[in-house]
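REQUEST ID: PR-0412
SUBMITTED BY: lab tech R.K.
PRIORITY: routine
TASK: structure prediction, single protein chain
INPUT:
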Amino acid sequence: MIARKFPNGFLWGAATAAHQIEGNNVNSNWWAMEHAPDSKVVEPSGDAADSYHRFGEDIRLLADLGLNAYRFSIEWARIEPERGFVSRAEIDHYRRMVDACLDKDVEPIVTLMHFTVPRWFQRDGFWRADDAPELFERYVEAALPVVSSGVRYVCTINEPNIAAMLAGGEDVANLVANAMPNPDLLVADRLYESHVRARRVLSGAGLRSGWTVATQAFAPTGEPGSEEEVQRYGHPREGWYLERAAGDDFVGVQAYTRTWVGPGGPLPVADNVETTLTGWEFYPPAAAEGIRAAWEATGHTPVMVTENGIATGDDERRIAYTRGALDGVLATITEGIDVFGYLHWSLLDNFEWASGFRPTFGLISWDPHTFQRTPKPSARWYGGIARANALPDH
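STATUS: complete
OUTPUT:
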């Protein structure tokens, strides 16, 4: 069997987000939302996977599988639970996570903001507040001890395009199936200014930084006007954010599925295609298409695939999806695109926001009562690819 090699030094890892796995993130806006009387969240995050206490075990499992990189987020609501108060204990907690990675020869890739913000930040105007970028910059400065040594790559803001759409005020339930809300353009501008300020702080500390964008593989149906509609619909939801990563140290691509677009806008997922537990089309080429879109829009900013995966209860389909995605990633590298890492979403089954714990994206499952971790066959398969730094031919 012929193995197709990835570049030397390629980062093979998995990703998580603090609120989705830590548990008891009580000072965050999402915790408040989950427990509101009129909450549309199907269940609260609660203890989640208790990774706040079990991060050492999670990092050890990742390393034992053969992976060499771990993307995790630090939680602003823990570090600054009240406006102007910085918790030294929480700074130390997240620094211990970095050290745990380094002890296992795992590259720590730290995300500063993965959707959640402190309750006080939400109360004081959220991303619409005039001083929001300044407050984020102050948080980044406070968090520098977490990443000041042993960390090379920092993601400033996770999926700002999704964050701006979630802030747009539209009731998602009333949208056409598979449509994405209109973004709040003020929030988009505030997020970008926050990113620029964060990068200035991080660059001053010798760190490489970028933000991560949820790419959607927008596909025209071929009907008259569909090509134009892809641009009209897609640019404010994806292209604008990729373009602003030009000149950054890297851009993160987060790809899962594709979106068909006709002359009237996005179309529902067809009845005759395979779908995942999130209702998305099973579409492994999404990663490669996201990479190509990012490379072109940024004028050749280096790319890290910071999320790619599938929500499924059938682990064989997870392997099939990931194999197809990696085929595409390797093809983009062969084309000359600078792709230097692939981080699977997710290391653990986790709290998938408004959908609760039902969509299982993880390479590792866990018992909700004992929190015992169990690597899935897909985890060992993926670890074998990482150890070989190569993808075998089919």
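NOTES: The CA atoms of residues 12 and 176 lie 37 Å apart.
REVIEWED BY: pending
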